Amino acid sequence: QVQLVESGGGLVQAGGSLRLSCAASGRTFSIYMMGWFRQAPGKEREFVGSITWNGGSRTYADSVKGRFTISRDNAKNTWYLQMNSLKPEDTAAYYCAARMSSSVRYDYWGQGTQVTVSS
């Protein structure tokens, strides 16, 4: 089992920045990839980005490329989503997720943290 806890959400004006954190506990040694997703009211959950545990590969959705950056601190079992140049359309609940080395899907999810960008 892996437990994930997000933090760092809040209200920010358009053009501002926020950094989300996702702290993992439990069987973190089996995590292969960590991802960020978001879901706005009335919309499907969408992929934001991901990073492999060793940091060797990062992937981003086109909508956030150049504005968002994912990083990780393995010593703290924590990964981050740095969000710059925020837009009102970035408003959503943001979730972190962990994919285990033996899995092809994200197995564990955090509870989510709300990000609201005002225009």
What does this structure look like?
The protein has 119 residues and is mainly beta. Helix content is 0%, strand content 56%. The protein is built from no helices and eleven strands. The protein has strands spanning 2-7, 10-13, 18-26, 31-39, 46-52, 58-60, 68-73, 78-83, 92-100, 108-109, 113-118. The strands form two sheets. Strands 2, 4, 5, 6, 9, 10 and 11 form a seven-stranded mixed sheet that branches. The chain has a four-stranded antiparallel sheet with strand order 1-3-8-7, with no helix packed on it. The radius of gyration is 13 Å and the shape is globular. The N and C termini lie far apart (40 Å). The mean pLDDT is 95.
Question: Would you kindly provide a brief summary of this structure?
Answer:
The chain is mainly beta. The chain has strands at 2-7, 10-13, 18-26, 31-39, 46-52, 58-60, 68-73, 78-83, 92-100, 108-109, 113-118. The chain is built from no helices and 11 strands.
How would you summarize the topology of this molecule?
Layout: E1 2-7, E2 10-13, E3 18-26, E4 31-39, E5 46-52, E6 58-60, E7 68-73, E8 78-83, E9 92-100, E10 108-109, E11 113-118
Parallel strand pairs: 2-11
Antiparallel strand pairs: 1-3, 3-8, 4-5, 4-9, 5-6, 7-8, 9-10, 9-11
Beta-strand fraction estimate: over 45%
Average pLDDT confidence is 95
Shape: globular
The rounded Rg comes to 13 Å
Number of strands: 11
Q: Name the poorly predicted regions.
A: none
Distance between the termini: 40 Å
Order of helical and strand elements: EEEEEEEEEEE
Largest sheet: 7 strands, mixed
Please tally the helical runs, counting DSSP H or I stretches of 4 or more residues.
0
How would you classify the helix and strand content by structural class? mainly beta
> Residue share in helices?
under 10%
